[in-house]
Amino acid sequence: MMNRRQLLGASAAGAALVSSTAWSKTTNMGLPDAALMESPLTQAPLMPSSGPDYNPVVTLNGWTLPSRMNNGVKEFHLVAEPVERELADGMTAYLWGYNGQSIGPTIEAVEGDRVRIYVTNKLPEHTTVHWHGLILPSGMDGVGGLSHPAIPPGKTYIYEFDLVKSGTFMYHPHADEMVQMAMGMMGFFIVHPKDPAFMPVDRDFLIMLNAFDIDPGSYVPKIMTMNDFNLWTWNSRIFPDIDPLVVSKNDRVRVRVGNLTMTNHPIHMHGYDFEVTGTDGGWVRPEARWPEVSIDIPVGAMRAYEFDAEYLGDWAIHCHKSHHTMNAMGHDVPTFIGVDKSKLTKKIRVVQPEYMPMGTAGMADMAEMSMELPNNTIPMMAGWGPYGPLEMGGMFSVVKVREGISAGDYSDPGWYENPPGTQAYEWTGELPELAKATDAATTITPAPLKASSNG
Ligand SMILES: [Cu+2]
């Protein structure tokens, strides 16, 4: 749970305040508490405590930054700092992030709010925060050296601006950007519409696509990697430990996916067609929306899509680049499919009796056998479902649609039980009684409630 603590004492806070007299005059209170998150698990959404009502977002394996009101201004305190992030159970990375975690906490506010964001730099080098997609004064844009001087280590700067539009935005450093983003510094900035009746949804999930290159057995990402990352993450988390997207039947669901990696990611969701309803540029007008089952998320961009959760089940959601649903792997492994290794195996076993030939019939073996791995390393393929190994990793999770889940309940309901007659089965020479009894007019696939699943 939330563990708030005052990171700076009163004297340090006074010394750290930005030098602009105009800004310091508006601040008649000390620094807001810098909330700190120690858990890598999905935290309950923060319900609105002031201003217009909204349905808060849920950051998978993440959390939302608390705020306070100060003379009508919504104040937040971000702390840029080294963090230890659990990428999955059994693998921790030494990253840079915000307030104890990578990705940083989600900042959530409402169109029309004025926000004041204190940014304390506890990194060993300078940093800034760029507010990707927000409309704001040039001097608040967070490009080090262009918008304002970079924030030196140990100092606190203030960003302050009015939220003139609703939508999905991101934040990240614009100072030594290649290094700081490779180290995990990024987060979401959500601005809810002032009118609660504008495009309301029941569930609103956030996924930030990011990537790391961490050699098996080590902890720190290789910051010079440009393309060949070995850990493809959602909110700095990998399958099998990315929490599921838990949904109640007939909920209106929005999924917002941002991409701060260096390649595109076609995000594919099973079981549904959906409509693209937003980008980081704004909301898509109803007449301009388009249907998809995979949505390509370009580099440096965000896409939001929505669907009505009519179909019960456990539905995979994943990046469709198959190397992005694997954990750390070498790309220089030779292909052995079709190779007869039996003679070679005999020779090798003379000196190495435990030797096992691999890869001659594909690589699915990898998911079932437990080979010894270096410390702090997760297998390339992982995860067990109710019927066997999932053989996935990286950018993969499950949308779990169930009957009667209470609003605000995101706890894992377990695996879906397929009703009789609705699951693939082995042909054993004769159709089972249930299938024989089905006449051709009966359909086992649920019909959509509407001609198009989104209204
Ligand atoms: Cu991908």
TrEMBL record:
Pfam families: Cu-oxidase_2, Cu-oxidase_3. Keywords: Copper, Metal-binding, Oxidoreductase, Signal. The keyword DNA-binding does not apply. InterPro entries: Cu-oxidase-like_N, Cu-oxidase_C, Cu-oxidase_fam, Cu_oxidase_Cu_BS, Cupredoxin, TAT_signal. Residues 85-195, 219-333 form the Plastocyanin-like domain. SUPFAM superfamilies: Cupredoxins (SSF49503). Residues 1-24 form the signal peptide. It comes from the Bacteria. PANTHER family: FI03373P-RELATED, MULTI-COPPER OXIDASE. This is Copper oxidase. It comes from Hoeflea algicola.
